[in-house]
Amino acid sequence: MSEAQRKVLCAIEISKTYVSGTRRINVLDGLDISIWSGESVAICGPSGVGKSTLLHLLGGLDRPDKGRVILDGFDISELSDVDLARVRNKIVGFVFQSHNLLQEFSALENTMMPLLIAREDVASSRERAKDVLAKVGLGKRLNHRPSELSGGEAARVAIARALVTRPKVLLADEPTGNLDARTGQEVQDLLAEMHREYGLAVVIVTHNERLAAGCARVLELENGRLKTASDYYNEGDRVECLRDIQKRLAE
């Protein structure tokens, strides 16, 4: 199987419930999804339906109450917190609507952060961060802090930070949500360009119809599940994912 055909992210019957007072809210209910290397997927749906929750589960920022999430062969729902952090740092890049940049650090230092957390060499981390910032058009803004950047520039730093570890999956939560139409289009174009250049899988949660339409697949989250019929597993798909788990556990 070629890299372009390899399943890099797989969720099997994942469920997530939150408790609010005496109420139990089933946000996700036996949801299945598979993501292939190199593809782009948009997840849409109204606010509060659970899109961000799903993205957090797929990226290992949270754990499902039931079901399994397989990330590049690792059953991340079974990993220890320490091992999960290592896998997440290496394989997944995150872009958040609010960017989550550290205000006391420069664009370069923010971009270096995932590499430093992974205990990479400082000098090589700096050079790699400079390279990816240049790719997103910020080669001359390396030493500017977030407060000195425009909204579009801050979004570019967030994308650079997500790409600096050379991940296999990029997860973006409303990446254009806080931007005006022109800047949002620029960020959309940048995401598409980076997707082509790096060849990684991209999953985007968005209300932006134009951003969603630029993805190869558009799925809608409703009543805890994804509606698109073509995304539901057939039995062969499910067996393949279970084999991935068994192979990883046997190593």
Rg from C-alpha positions?
A: 18 Å
Write the CATH architecture name.
3-Layer(aba) Sandwich
Count of domain modules: 1
Tell me the β content.
25-35%
**SS elements, strand count:** 10
Order of helices and strands: EEEHEEHEHHHEHEHEEH
CATH level-4 homologous superfamily:
P-loop containing nucleotide triphosphate hydrolases
Question: Your description of this structure?
Answer:
The protein has eight helices and ten strands. The chain is of the alpha/beta class. It has a single domain, classed as P-loop containing nucleotide triphosphate hydrolases (Rossmann fold, 3-Layer(aba) Sandwich). The strands form two sheets. The protein has a six-stranded mixed β-sheet. Strands 2-1-4-5 form a four-stranded antiparallel β-sheet, sandwiched between helices.
Labels describing this entry:
251 residues; 4-stranded antiparallel sheet; 10 strands
Describe this structure in a few short sentences.
The chain has 251 residues and is α/β, with parallel strands linked by helices. Helix content is 38%, strand content 25%.
Please write out the topology:
Layout: E1 7-20, E2 23-36, E3 40-44, H1 51-58, E4 66-71, E5 74-75, H2 81-91, E6 92-95, H3 107-117, H4 122-135, H5 151-163, E7 169-173, H6 181-198, E8 201-205, H7 209-213, E9 217-222, E10 225-226, H8 235-250
Parallel strand pairs: 3-8, 3-9, 6-7, 7-8
Antiparallel strand pairs: 1-2, 1-4, 4-5, 9-10
Helix pairs in contact: 3-4, 3-5, 4-5, 5-6
